[in-house]
């Protein structure tokens, strides 16, 4: 008789955004007359930029002709894309990352969930609290997190690093020493950022203690302040302790197209074992590459036209962020984020729990957001709104919130 992976049974409830989706579907079915504005999941709403569409069209044409048709993509991704990434995201920022240290994939969510596979199950992980749930849930599935305490909503074997208003929503070095440290900056969900000097402390700590930082830089394109690093490899010594995950979803609107990449520098070694070699082995075995058409679309992100068009797209979303932030402040809410990230993190009014506020906002204003407690116990009493809606919907949502 077969057995299942019982670690899955330890997972409480369903994935955060599935739970929200189900709740909203049930609500709209019960109230078909109500108009709902969705500022919950961080999904983009603006169309793909013209330079990207053009690149996709031309790649589609290539696929229709025997001379230019492509089958399986190379394991690590096409060189044209890896070269564009190495140049655009690293060399131009003074970060030393070579094209052959970049692994192209179909998105950062999968990579952030899969990367733990190359590490031993007895490694201890540290996460920010609140945190993007994928890091925790995938470690639960792998059996790395111990037991769950429903009272504290914490796992016995995870080191939690609270990110609260008191510490500017930036984690402090943990008291217990972790093996793997998940960091995401600019941060999902709090919208906070860290300076290069703050990130350097983490890099030094990881090198000193022999830990690996798994650095999620999905929201890098939203950085507006000078001293905030765009990649962890801007920090001295990061090549020997950090893996970086990047997505094309937020900077270029690829949520429905799927493209991302992971960087593993060749200096990152456990004894004499290269993590790059392990991930290459995994990638080659379990993955057949992002589609050629999509990799060409990704290349267009780094073209002059692509960069100019995407700059405008980011500015559009950041105008939403400013509108939400300032509008909520005027309405008397305590708000943070929205300056270097497309997320606004607000304190729920009148000591409502995050889920109470979710229901209140849905019922009274027809606005969907994300309850902070869904990201971890330190998110309780907070709520996240995304700037990825249309400007019109963002304004309408704010008007409705102001009126309740
Ligand atoms: C979020 O809303 O936190 C993100 O959009 C989820 C994701 O990128 O997978």
In the CATH scheme, what's the topology name of the largest domain? Aspartate Aminotransferase, domain 2
Q: What's the Cα radius of gyration?
A: 21 Å
Total beta strands? 17
One letter per element, helices H and strands E, the order comes to HEHHEHEHEEEEHEEHEEEHHHEEHEEEH
Query: Which class best fits the helix and strand makeup?
Result: alpha/beta
CATH class of the largest domain: Alpha Beta
Q: Largest sheet, if any?
A: 7 strands, mixed
Q: What is the chains' assembly state?
A: single chain
Number of helices in the DSSP assignment: 12
Low-confidence stretches: none
**DSSP helix fraction:** 25-40%
Task: State the strand order across the main sheet.
Answer: 2-10-9-8-7-3-6
The H-level CATH homologous superfamily of the largest domain, spelled out, is: Type I PLP-dependent aspartate aminotransferase-like (Major domain)
State the separation between the terminal residues, measured CA to CA: 57 Å
> How much β-strand is present in the residues?
5-15%
CATH level-two architecture of the largest domain = 3-Layer(aba) Sandwich
Taken together, the total number of domains comes to 2
